[in-house]
Specification:
This protein is α/β, with parallel strands linked by helices. The chain has three domains: 1-39; 51-271, Rossmann fold (3-Layer(aba) Sandwich); 298-472, 2-Layer Sandwich (Nucleotidyltransferase, domain 5), CATH 3.30.420.240. The chain has helices at 6-11, 15-39, 41-48, 56-70, 86-101, 114-129, 131-136, 191-203, 205-208, 227-233, 265-274, 277-284, 362-376, 390-398, 417-429, 439-450, 458-472, and strands spanning 75-79, 106-111, 151-153, 159-164, 174-180, 209-219, 244-247, 302-304, 314-320, 332-340, 349-358, 380-384, 403-406, 433-436. Helix 15 crosses helix 17. The radius of gyration is 30 Å and the shape is elongated. Residues 478-487 have low confidence and may be disordered.
Amino acid sequence: MSQINWDKIADSLTDDEAKYALQLKRRLNKLNYQTEAQKKFITFVKHMWPDFIEGEHHKVFAKQLENVATGKSKRLIVNMPPRHTKSEFASVFFPAWMMGLNSKLKIIQATHTTELATGFGRKCKALVHSPQFREIFPEVKISPESQAAGRWNTVEGGEYFAAGVGAAITGRGADLLIIDDPHSEQDALSSTSFEACYEWYTSGPRQRLQPGGSIVIVMTRWSTKDLTAEVLKMQSRKGADQWEVIEFPAIFEDDNVLWPGFWSREELEGVKSSLPVSKWNAQWLQKPTSDAASILKREWWQKWEDDDPPYCDYIIQSYDTAFLKSERSDYSAITTWGIFTPNEDDSQCICLLNSEKGRWEFPTLKKKAYESYMEYDPDMVLIEAKASGLPLTQELRTMGIPVINFTPGGRRAGQDKIARANACAPLFESGKVYAPDTDWAEELIEECASFPNGDNDDLVDSTTQAILRFREGGFIAHPEDYLDEEITPRQFKYY
């Protein structure tokens, strides 16, 4: 339809005609806006929530929900961090919008507690009752007999039913099943809670779905055993539900923030600093880790309890470099390790002295390397003999730093990452590897625990390189190994 030039028309009209034309214009604009809000979920949200701060992820989220409404998507999972309007979209505005589109719809809304689900039902019901809602969906009305917040009906026979995880849903049918954050903080403390949630899902709500019905799961990730993980495992079965999965990390791999209009980078870094790495990775990055397939298990690490590191007989500094333009998406990692004796009668062990990683351009990487060397004065600096490590090797040698190009595996040159980790595993399992209780150490431990299924392995590569050098060089006092000559121990401080 071509655009109407109202100003041009008004110039040729009488005053009464112009007034009538203005009324028609306003009416047409209202109808167009009404139609847009009925078709576009994000427009509906803005209409109902004038103070809404829109982010790019909301547009993606809204589009996926529109696909559910039109039948293009029948099974949708959206994983996103806390406080990013997850529940407002999924549990309040979306069911209200869907009821506006089809007032005969039967909706089951579930979350981890009945009280919270009922609260969502109360908010959704209030929206449908509001004058703003009637501006978009004037024909939809809630039945006068519907008094409960968690269960109400439309006059056309639609039904909204709120339930907590574990609650009975027998006898209910659903055209739309919405599951919003089925897990709580308490669930994360017990793997049986995750199992119970999945059992409830399969025995209850999944069986209440009507033919042609849709399921939307919106949640923050908690574990490799949470509901998202379990339903996705079932996809491999013939004829099983096939899910479309959308994941929103609070901070992307390129360091951009998901919702800069609400969350600043500084605020998110503050959240990160206040959480264990495992919780940050799971809840805020949607990357839960598990020891189940891990080679270097989290439980094998020994904790160095003292505030100061141990006196070390030998120090190795290990680099995993990625500074070439073709590798700009990767991190460079620098780890520093020392050989020490925990007690007089003990054999020698390894302790992590420092760990850092970043996306550093070559000049910054060179500066970092020099500063790390000057701080710890390592007996050996290891840089893997690969293309990206050679320029750094050359630069550091010109500065008087004795760099060794190390190929982990010795004669087994080219030993792959998994083989290297497996070669290191016995030392970890035997309790020979220590780490302090610091954020940077926890980050390294978490990356090792997620290997080989994690997204990053830069710290893992730096770690296994150092551990293999200790092992192959005979620095660890095992019966089959030789001992280096005695060296005066040195003391450092953690920062």
